Every structure is written in structure tokens, then in C-alpha cells.
Amino acid sequence: MKKLVLNILVLIILSAFVIVTSGCVSLKDKLVSSGNNSLSLETMKEVDYARYLKKIWVVKAWNGEAYQYFSFFINKIADNTIQGKLCKDEIAYPDFYFYSLEPSKYLGDLSGTLNNGVAECKYEDKFGNKGIVTLAFNEDDEIEAKITYTDKEEALKNDLIDSDYKFRPYNLADREDFIPSKENSFAVDLNSWGSVKLITGEIDHGAKKYPAAYLSNEHGDILYAFQAPFQTASKLTSASIKDINGDGLKDVILTTEFIEDPSIEHIKWTFYQMSDGLFYDSEVNSN
Fold it and tell me: What is the pLDDT of residue 164?
């Protein structure tokens, strides 16, 4: 009798162990076990996809040195479809148009469908690289990704390797060379961006310093960078947001000056917002 009771207890403990550990599997294990690239029943759940939109996603293991991984952002999720951009070997900043309205050749198209918290996407860039990207949306601001190439540009055939990654949001804390300015940073409701913060300051590389400006969320996750050619040794002295051209979209106005040499004329930078939330410099129209 005692032996029978002991055997039953052992079975109960083993069953509990299997149940607990079954939830601690990687994206790769989930996809392989399902056999059809969808999550198994026990992993099905409601996902708040809005929390993953507009953030720039970088490899979780990145230590802040030169970025040599994949990076991406998702700008639309609707009706079980997903759209975004992905690039390799650099951080995937959304387009900022200064010299022309030509989009970046480094940002490849990412699009696909969603099913039970997993997105099956196709990836294609202007260099001829194509692939399948599987994204699993985890809790705690994490996305797991499996990238499999179907076509590779000739020069990088041996460098582009299929792999699994974990991604996290790109954050202002990653920019150790960025010094924010409290005076010219503030929260704003910015059309399709929603409630965001305009964060201005300067990049300090020791021998040289120059202004910088970003859009971020309340957690400091970087959503957008105003990548204008601000002059070295100048400082950003004012920032404002208002609709300049009357199209119903709020534009960003920044002023930079050479504080140590007031004889040099200050520069007013006007960045117009487009319907897709991207910005272009006022001088683009005159080029």
C-alpha cells in the first residue's frame, strides 16, 4: 500500500514539473514542436500589439559598442497583418529626409501576417537580400526572432547567417554619449505618434560636440531621430512644435547657436511632418 502511494506521489510531481517547464521554451522550440510555424494551444494568448509599435528594436545582447546586428521597427499592425522595416549591421532609424525625399536604401521591407502572437514575415531589401522573419511577441518588452535567408547578395553570401535573436527596445540609455537638455525637452501630443517626448541635447565625443534631437516614449525608448547635419561646437538653444504649413500636422522647429562666438548667425531648423509621421527638412522643397 505504501509503495502504491509513493508511486502516485512521484507521478504527480513529475506531471507538475512537465506543466511548469512546458511554458519555458524558446521560439525555436515552439515553432519546431508545432510543425506548422504556429504556437501550440497552451501558448495562445491575447497580445497587446500596440506596445510593440513604433519602437526601434535592437538585439538584447548588444553591449553598446558598434552595432553589427539586425534591427527593425514595426509601424503598422491591423487586421492580422504587420508592416515595418528591417536592416542589418546598423540601428533601424525611421527615415528622416534632409537632402532629398529618397528613402534609405538600408531599410528593407518587412511584412506578413499574425497568428496567436507570432508574425510570419517576408523581408526584402534593395541589395537583393530576401528572407523569412518569424517574430514572437513576449512579455516584458521582448521580441524573439528567427531569420532565415532565401536569397543573398553575392558579396555577403558567407556573412549573412540564419539565426535566432532576442530583441529589446532601443533606449536613450544606450546613447552614453548623449547629454539631454531639460530646458528644451518636453512632452507633446504629436499626431500619429500620440503622446511622446521631444528630447534634445548634445552628443559629446570628447574632442567634438554637436546637437541631437529624438522622439521618445515615457520610458526613454527612442522612436525617431532628427538626423540633421548639426554643426560641431554649436548648441541647441530653443525647441518648439507647431503646425507651420497649415496641413494639420505638427512640425518641429529647432534653433542652434555658437554660444562662444555670438558673431556667427544662429540657424533655425524647420522639420515638416508628413502624413506617415516621418519628417523632412524645409530645405528639401528648394532642392
Answer: 92
The pLDDT tens digits of the residues spanning 104-117 come to 999 999 999 999 88
Residue in 81, 85, 82 with CA at minimum distance from that of residue 93: 85
Per-residue pLDDT at 170: 98
Task: Tell me if the pTM is above 0.85.
Answer: no
Phi, psi of 29 (to 5 degrees): -65, -40
Contacts 24+ apart (CB under 8 A), 262-266: 266/237
- Whether the CB-CB separation of 214 and 236 falls below 8 Å is answered with no
Cite the beta strand spans of the chain per DSSP E.
Answer: 56-59, 70-78, 81-88, 96-97, 108-115, 118-124, 130-138, 142-151, 163-169, 178-180, 186-189, 195-204, 209-216, 222-225, 235-242, 251-257, 267-273, 279-281
Q: How far apart are CA 177 and CA 182, in angstroms?
A: 16
Q: What is the dihedral of CA 148, 150, 156, 159, to 10 degrees?
A: 20
Give CA–CA dist 189/57, Å, rounded.
23
CA distance 225 to 163: 28
Cα 51 to the chain's mean position, in Å?
A: 12
Q: Are strands 279-281 and 96-97 parallel, antiparallel or unpaired?
A: parallel
Within a 10 A sphere around the Cβ of 91, how many other Cβ atoms? 18
* Amino acid, res. 57: W
Is pLDDT larger for residue 20 or for residue 202? 202
**What per-residue confidence (pLDDT) applies to 116?**
87
Question: Comparing C-alpha atoms, which of 248, 251, 259 is closest to residue 215?
Answer: 251
Residue 250 carries which side chain, given as an amino acid letter? K
